[in-house]
Amino acid sequence: MIHNYPDLTENLNHSLAQLHHEIPETLKGFGQMARSIHNDGALSSKTKELIAMAIGIAGRCQGCLGFHAKMLVQMGCTRAEFLEMLQVAIYMGGGPSLMTAAEALQAYEAFGGEQAG
Description:
Blueprint: H1 5-22, H2 24-36, H3 45-58, H4 62-74, H5 79-110
Pfam family, one: CMD
InterPro entries: AhpD-like, AhpD_core, CMD-like
Domain Carboxymuconolactone decarboxylase-like: 24-106
C-alpha cells in the first residue's frame, strides 16, 4: 500500500481534532501520556520515539508510521539510527514487520529524513 505520509498525518489530524471535541477527556489523557515521553530521562526522547516507531511497525499502524517518522525527522534522527531501529523491529516481528519497515522508511523519507536518503 502506498501512502503519502504528510497527507495521511494531516488528514488524521483533522479527525483527531474532531475526536478531541467529542471525547475530550480521553484525548486529554492520551495527549498527557504522549507529552510525558518527550522529556529525556533514563532514555533520551529520541530513543523513546524510536521505540514508538518500532511498536507502530509491529502493530502495522500507518498513522503511527507517519506521526513518528515526522517526529523523528524533527528530532534529527539520522538514517543510520532509523535503519538500526528497523533492524530491531524486523527481528522482533518477522516478515510482516519487514513489509511495514519498508513503509516506515518511505514515511521517514517523505518527511525529508536525512534529506530523503
